[in-house]
Amino acid sequence: MSTTTWSRRAHRALPRVLVAAGRLEIDHHEVRFTPARTERLFGRRPWSVPLHEVETVDVAPRHLGDVMRGGAVRRLRIVDVSGHEELFVVAPGTDRAVEAVRAALDQPAPSTTTV
Hints:
Layout: E1 6-14, E2 18-26, E3 30-35, H1 37-41, E4 47-50, E5 54-60, E6 75-80, E7 85-91, H2 94-106
Antiparallel strand pairs: 1-2, 1-7, 2-3, 3-4, 5-6, 6-7
């Protein structure tokens, strides 16, 4: 397992009108969301995407028709190479979350070879 380089509380937008509370984390290999224990009791599952599969990272604009999924606030949007979009409300600061993911994308993965 890789060392986490960034971590914040977040809510992940789920299909329909749902969100899941948990923690969004970045390491040298992936971005992942781990639902809180109470969310896991309701069947919410972890999500992750390898950094090399991240196509776009930006701020999703407010969308009042999507209020129950965090649409009243700016959300972190991660789109993978297949076009799949994930949205997160990150506390505190969506802009800082975007910067953290972009910084991870710009960093080469640490070498696993030994001398």
